[in-house]
Every structure is written in structure tokens, then in C-alpha cells.
Write a structure and sequence with these properties.
Keywords: Hydrolase, Metal-binding, Metalloprotease, Protease, Signal, Zinc. The chain is mainly alpha-helical. Helices cover 50% and strands 5% of the residues. The strands form four sheets. It has a four-stranded antiparallel β-sheet, with helices on one face. α5 runs antiparallel to α14, α6 crosses α13 and α15 packs across α25. The N terminus is likely disordered.
């Protein structure tokens, strides 16, 4: 190790020999277990000691790995593939797992794998409609292609019997709208038109999808026979925007700001008689949703106006906004699946990358697709079976919960030291005191399969055994519609009834904070080395999985979530003065990032969308370090890591924090990564390490960084929240 890493004991000035003797005498013994060996190997494979930590800590901690590692060495690729293979093996295993729900998951997955004939038969009907739409030229398809999220589906047009109308879920404000509902009117069908909110369009210059409300929904009634004449009329009407429902018509937000009503919206856009259009709906239950007093979000009206102006200038702009989707038995991906199976158009390898799969052949694609579908429907059951297969102990879960409690207590301690009003401190602390957590593997997942079965039995209310895949899909669609009806009519009851049937993401290395429920979740994929192992030293777990937990905890106070109270309501009793100061502190934080963004070649609009994540990064690591210091005082020093004896525990803590952000240079050059990075609401990984640490006095002290070094922002340091 470099000389500057020598053990730094606080002793009188003396010889080097006396320093070494005192250090050896006072330091705990070196640990020699396999877990500690893993840790030593991890650091040695990643650190670049040619770089000084006070110059660029990210390059120091990750430089060797970033330069030498290939795509397959990436943490997300390795872990997601490992988990997917394990769970897939359980799904096809003939051995019985003592859970009715998991048996249903196995039946669903196997039926999906065997469903290609039925899908080809049903998908074939859509060709008639596809050809008719193509006959009308530019509208609604552009160059016969469009992108649907990360899936890269093409010509996504399918036969129609049922319809679901989807409204956007805005990621920036975490607004969650759910009016997805089924409408039938004898033999009349309803066309669904929607815009993909991530990749179709931007509302104005400098506005990215994350900050927009791009979803436009249009409804048109049509007869059961798709005659060319009638189709032409619908397309003509749409092109002139005569029947476009503006953005979030009659949508019910879980939270609202500056609320208006459907009536106000209708008066603002008098060219569209929404009530007349809605009177065509025969179902009284559906009509009940569209009452005049229903509140909707006012800010979206400004964005609608900008869109209207754009469409008036060039009606053909609708070609880039409106997508026609016919739904056959409510199977949204049916036609895309049919096209893959018929091999008419090849699917790019990255099209299912989010599932942790590199697709190279038709069989692999089918397995990946079925795995995703099974995960959507039976995520908790897959999680439970996976937890049992890797023998996760309740002791490991207790350790995670203990860490969470340490973070919460550290938060209380830091807030109590603030020079805020007692009322402000009380409200901020109350929010954290009531924050619920779901740390990956719940007690239900680990052992209580009977309780899980009872939840799914209440959720499904129908026997799926013996049904084909297509019919099971229809069942799940109707269940979702009924749930969302109940959500619209009774939000509290619906949330309580279904709160334990969460979507579980087995293929995502992430966590999330849900301010509307005052709850955080850490996904299962994070509970593996190198993020977490129960027998790793305390400094490592607190810095790795711990900093992720504390990151999600601090999201409760970012610039949008701070407007929620301890019960998940979109209101706050925090004073306007407090909120104003909070936003000013965030401005100071963003200035710290600004120079680094430009040096790395990023534009300012990228900086604008990273505010929330920058806040959680800077405050999360500060909270994790404080909790670690408290635990160290409480429980004493730990055994040292063999091969790293010259590092202090605090130095190792910061090294451990950096490991999650190491990224192979090879991956950074791929088109898929570059495209995702441009819209990612997180800062570049180098800045996620360097900027939060440079803002911490504790880091500069640990590595003795001089005031003029890059990693010591003593002159420009910001006190952001904690």
C-alpha cells in the first residue's frame, strides 16, 4: 500500500517504529474468514493505487475494474442472470414447493412457454388491421416503427375485443394515476390511443419525458367490422384532433396540487365536449368516475396548451404522438410476441435487457418474456421460493432491520442538532418515525407461505388451474380493472386491501421510496455480495447496502417528496419559510455538481433532472456514516481485513461505498447505456461517488485531503439537510 495509507494513530511525535508498535498493539487482529477474503479480493481487483484518493476518489476506488472489466463483470448483469436462472429452475422443477401460489406460478410459466400456437392463431387476426392502417400512410405509424419503453416492439397493433385506458405515472413527482378500466357496449369496441411517456415526444425544448405529462388519450367508437371507410373516418378525426381527450381527463390522482375539476377542464377546451363523449358510455359504474367535482392536476393544463399549439401548427405531428393499439382479449403484447415467433422481424439483443437476459435466439426470448410475465403476476411467490432456495436466515433480516433502526436513530440525532424551529424538527422527525420499510426479503417471503397463499386467494378469487395462458391473462386483466375501480371509489380501502401484494422486481438492482405510502422498499437483488453479506464487517454492510437504504430514506425529504406528511397524504404543515430555505440549500447542492457535469460533457438539462437523486446521494451517505460511527462506538472495533491492514475503518467505509458504482468502460460505450444515461435521473456514477464525499468533512479527515484538493470542498461545501 502507498505510504500515505499507514495506520494513523494519535500519539506523540516519535519514530516510525514506535508508531508501528503502538498501532499493532491497539488494533484488533486480522480476520481470516472466506467472507473477509472475498472483500480483500474485491478491493484489490478494483482499486487503482496510481491515483491519489484526494484527487479522484472514484478512479482510486474503481479505476482498475473500470478499465479491465468486461460487460459480463458488471454487477447488474451477473446478479440478475444468477437470480433469473435460479428462479427459472424452480419454476420448471417438478418437485413440489409447499405453496399453492407458487404452484400457480409454475402452471402460469409453463403455460406461457407452451402458448405459441394460440398466440400465433390470435395474432394472425391482427394482420388485417395492420395492413389497413399502413394503407393510410403517415398516420398513426411513423416509418412503420415505434419504441415502447425499453422493449423495442415494432408495429404494436393487435385485434380488439376489450380496452384499457392508461394514464401516465409521472416519475418526477411520483404521481400515480390508476384509471385503467374496462368498457363494453354490446358488440361495439373502443379504440385505445396512448403515448409512450418515455420515448415518443418532448413537450418543449429542454423538457425531458421525466418532467412532462406526455400521455394523451383518445377514445373512438367503432363497429365490430373494421371497414376501410370507417377506419379512414376515425383516422381523419384523430388527425384533426377533434376527439382527443386532453391528457388526464377525469383521472383521479392519489395526491393533487392546485386542483381543478373536469368541468373547468372542459370549459378550458370547449372544442371538445367531454361530457357528451362520456355520455356514450353505458356503464353507470364507469360514468360515476367522471363526476364533475373530480379533482385533477392543474399544472398539466399548461403542458396541454403547449401541445395544442404544436398540433395546430402541424396536424401531422400527431403521427409522433398518437399510437393505435388494438387489444385482443386484453393482451397488450400479443402482436409483438406473434411477430417474434413468426420471425418476420428480428428482435435486438438489448430489447429484453431489463430482465437480465441477453437474448440471442427465439427460445431464449420466449423464456425471458414468460419470466417477466410470471414475475408481474406472482412476484411475491417467486421471491418466497427464491429466499427459501438460498437459505436466507431470519438473522440476516434482523441485521438489516437493526441497520435500518440505526439509520433512523442517527437521523433523529442529526435533526435534533439543527437550528430549526421546534415545530419543523418535530414534523420532520415524525415523518421518519412512521416510515415503513420492506427490506427485500420479508418474513412472509422467508417462511409464512400460508399467509402468502391466503393473500393470493383473496386477490385472485378464481381457480386458474386448467386454464390456458391466454385465459389466465384475461383473468389477471379483469382483476386489475376491478382493483383500480375500487381504488378510484375508495382509495384507502384499496390500498389497505392490496398493500402486501407488491410488484416484486427480481431483476432490478435498486430500491424505491413511495411517499404516498410513507414506505421504502429494497429489492432482493441487492441482498447479495458485493452489496451485502451478514458475516461481512460492519463498515462494509453499513457503507454498501446501508448507503442504499439511507439513500431511499432520504428521498422522503427531496424537493417533491417533502410535500407529503407522515401518513402519505400530499400535504405538509412545514412552513413556507422552511420549504424556501430547503430549496435554496438544494440550489447550493446543484452548483456543486454543475462544474463536474460540464467537465464530463453533460448538458445542463441533464443536471436539472438529477436534483432528487443528488439530494438522496449526498444526504444518504452522510446518514449512513453517522449510523456507522454510532454502531462503532456501541460495539467496538472489528477485525481487520487481511491484505488491507493499513487502512483505517473509516477509510474502508468510504471505499466500500464506492464499489456499487464501479462500471466497466466497455458498457459505457454501448448505445443502449448511452441512451439510458441521457434520461437517467441519477448523476453519472463518478459524480455519485466524488461529489457527496467531497462535501463531507469526515471524508477529508479520513484521507487527510488538503483544503485545495479536488476531494475537499471546504471552500464550497453545502449544508443541505442533515
Amino acid at each position: 500500500m502507498s505510504c500515505w495509507l499507514a495506520c494513523l494513530c494519535i500519539i506523540p511525535v516519535g519514530t516510525i517504529m514506535s508508531i508501528q508498535l503502538i498501532c499493532v498493539e491497539n488494533d484488533p487482529p486480522v480476520e481470516n474468514t472466506s467472507a473477509y477474503h472475498q472483500l480483500e479480493q474485491l478491493f484489490s481487483e478494483r482499486m487503482d493505487e496510481k491515483v491519489h484518493p484526494c484527487d479522484n476518489f472514484y478512479q482510486y476506488a474503481c479505476g482498475k475494474f473500470n478499465t479491465n472489466a468486461g460487460m459480463d463483470d458488471d454487477i447488474s448483469v451477473k446478479l440478475t442472470e444468477k437470480i433469473r436462472m435460479t428462479v427459472t429452475g424452480l419454476l420448471i422443477d417438478a418437485r413440489r414447493i409447499p405453496s399453492k401460489t407458487f404452484e400457480l406460478a409454475q402452471h402460469y410459466y409453463r403455460s406461457c412457454l407452451q402458448s405459441h400456437q394460440a398466440l400465433e392463431r390470435l395474432g394472425g387476426h391482427s394482420q388485417f388491421v395492420i395492413e389497413k392502417i399502413r394503407n393510410f400512410g403517415y398516420f398513426p405509424l411513423v416509418d412503420d416503427t415505434f419504441s415502447y419503453g425499453d422493449q423495442g416492439y415494432k408495429d404494436y397493433v393487435i385485434d380488439l375485443t376489450d380496452v384499457a385506458i392508461y394514464f401516465n405515472k409521472n416519475r418526477t413527482t411520483t404521481t400515480w394515476l390508476l384509471p385503467q378500466f374496462l368498457m363494453r357496449r354490446n358488440d361495439t369496441a373502443i379504440l385505445q390511443f396512448f403515448v409512450d411517456q418515455y420515448s415518443i415526444f418532448q413537450l418543449s425544448e429542454g423538457t425531458v419525458p421525466d418532467t412532462a405529462y406526455p400521455l394523451q388519450t383518445a377514445i373512438a367508437l367503432c363497429i365490430e367490422t373494421y371497414s376501410k371507410c370507417y377506419m379512414q373516418k376515425i383516422l381523419k378525426d384523430l388527425a384533426s384532433m377533434n376527439i382527443l381527450l386532453k391528457n388526464i381527463v377525469a383521472a383521479f390522482y392519489f395526491k393533487t396540487t392546485e386542483p381543478t375539476t373536469l368541468g373547468n377542464l372542459n370549459r378550458s377546451y370547449s372544442s371538445i365536449d367531454m361530457f357528451k363523449l362520456l355520455s356514450e358510455i353505458s356503464s353507470s359504474e364507469v360514468r360515476h368516475i367522471f363526476q364533475d367535482g373530480l379533482r385533477i392536476n392543474a399544472p398539466s393544463l399548461q403542458r396541454i396548451a403547449r401541445l395544442d399549439a404544436s398540433l395546430q401548427r402541424d396536424p401531422k405531428a400527431g403521427a409522433n404522438i398518437i399510437i393505435i393499439q388494438f387489444v385482443c382479449k386484453s393482451l397488450g403484447e400479443l402482436d409483438a410476441r406473434f411477430r417474434v415467433l413468426s420471425s418476420r422481424k428480428p428482435v435486438k439483443k438489448h430489447s429484453l435487457r431489463s430482465a437480465g437476459v441477453s437474448v440471442s435466439d427465439k427460445k431464449a426470448l420466449e423464456e425471458a418474456w414468460c419470466f417477466i410475465k410470471t414475475q408481474e403476476k406472482f412476484g411475491q411467490a417467486l421471491l418466497a421460493s427464491y429466499a427459501r432456495s438460498i437459505n436466507y436466515t431470519t438473522e440476516a433480516l434482523k441485521l438489516l432491520q437493526s441497520m435500518f433502526n440505526d439509520f433512523r436513530n442517527a437521523f433523529f440525532q442529526l435533526i435534533s442538532e439543527k437550528h430549526w424551529s421546534s415545530k419543523s424538527k418535530e414534523l420532520v422527525i415524525l415523518r421518519m418515525a412512521k416510515l415503513r420499510n420492506h427490506l427485500g426479503l420479508t418474513d412472509v417471503a422467508v417462511g409464512d407461505l400460508g399467509y402468502l397463499d391466503s393473500l393470493y386467494e383473496k386477490y385472485l378469487q378464481v381457480n386458474l388451474h386448467g386454464l390456458e395462458f391466454v385465459d389466465m391473462e384475461d383473468v389477471f386483466n379483469r382483476i386489475n380493472l376491478m382493483y383500480e375501480f375500487s381504488t378510484l371509489n375508495n382509495i384507502t380501502a384499496a390500498k389497505n386491501h392490496f398493500k402486501r401484494i407488491d410488484i416484486v422486481f427480481l431483476h432490478i438492482l435498486n430500491g424505491r421510496n413511495m411517499p404516498w405510502e410513507n414506505r421504502l422498499q429494497i429489492f432482493t437483488t441487492l441482498l447479495h455480495f458485493p452489496m451485502f453479506l451478514p458475516n461481512l464487517p460492519r463498515f462494509y454492510n453499513y457503507a454498501s447496502i446501508g448507503s442504499i437504504i439511507s439513500h431511499e430514506m432520504m428521498h422522503s425529504y427531496d424537493n417533491t417528496s417533502i410535500g407529503f406528511d407522515e401518513n402519505g397524504n400530499h400535504k405538509t404543515d412545514l412552513s413556507k419559510e422552511f420549504l424556501k430555505e430547503h430549496w435554496l440549500r438544494e440550489e447550493c447542492m446543484q452548483k456543486m455538481y454543475e462544474d463536474s457535469f460540464e467537465k464530463l460533457g453533460y448538458k445542463k438539462k441533464k443536471l436539472k433532472i438529477t436534483v432528487r437523486e443528488n439530494f438522496a446521494d449526498t444526504q444518504g451517505i452522510k446518514l449512513a456514516f453517522k449510523a456507522y460511527q454510532n454502531a462503532k462506538k456501541r460495539e467496538g472495533k472489528e477485525s481487520r481485513v487481511e491484505g488491507l491492514p493499513d487502512f483505517t475503518e473509516d477509510q474502508l467505509f468510504f471505499l466500500a461505498y464506492s464499489q456499487f458504482f464501479c462500471l466497466p468502460e466497455e458498457k459505457k460505450k454501448t448505445k443502449a447505456w448511452i441512451a439510458k444515461d441521457q434520461l437517467d435521473t441519477h448523476s453519472p456514477k463518478e459524480l455519485r461517488v466524488n461529489t457527496p464525499l467531497a462535501n463531507m468533512v469526515e471524508f477529508s479527515e479520513a484521507f487527510h485531503c488538503s483544503p485545495n484538493s479536488a476531494m475537499n470542498s471546504a471552500v464550497r461545501r453545502c449544508e443541505i439537510f442533515l
